[in-house]
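Here comes just one.
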Amino acid sequence: MKKKAAKKAAPKKAKKKTTTGIRKKAGLTQINYALSEELQEIVGAKQLTRPQVVKKLWAYIKANKCQDTKNKRMINPDKKLSAVIGNKPVDMLKLATHLNKHIKK
């Protein structure tokens, strides 16, 4: 009796991963954007990268207790924040839409 020869599988190539999970080729995390006056009042700077804007915006939201107590996904804007996102409560996933209007290249 003859034994069948085992087929060897081709070795898989490992995918290159970045340490932060963000593509550095595009350099999106390193571009400083000019901010509108309303957004400058909240974040405290004239130019920031997009991740820095989001980080400072969330710091402001948490410090001023703008999150809804029952539904944490909803942001209830105060006077300063309403200049950026409007007067109505906004879902946290829609914040990027409102930020795009205040971030300039």
The domain at 30-104 is CATH 1.10.245.10 (MDM2). The radius of gyration is 23 Å. The first helix runs from residue 37 to 43. The first strand starts at residue 33 and ends at 35.
